[in-house]
Design goal:
Blueprint (H helix, E strand, L loop, with lengths): L11 E2 L2 H7 L3 H4 L11 E3 L4 E3 L16 H7 L4
């Protein structure tokens, strides 16, 4: 069973290209593709750049169908 957290929510934007579009000046400092970003992304409901958090009590959580995240969670991706 997959842990219910931001990484598995349809409202959590963790695609590097989408993050770079949201923060146009980010590429001056580096890249959203860099490993230093880790698993951080943007919560589109809270309008916040953040690390994934447990979403058990989040009223905005909506599971997304993302097989690539499932593969990464299993150490495949």
């Amino acid at each position: 069973m997959v842990e219910q957290n931001c990484r598995h929510c349809e409202r959590f934007v963790d695609d590097p290209a989408a993050i770079e579009r949201e923060f146009p000046g980010l590429t001056i400092l580096g890249s959203a593709y860099a490993s230093v970003r880790g698993a951080a992304g943007i919560c589109s409901e809270l309008d916040r750049f953040m690390d994934p958090a447990p979403a058990l009590d989040c009223p905005f959580y909506a599971p997304r169908d993302d097989s690539s995240t499932a593969a990464t969670d299993q150490g495949v991706g």
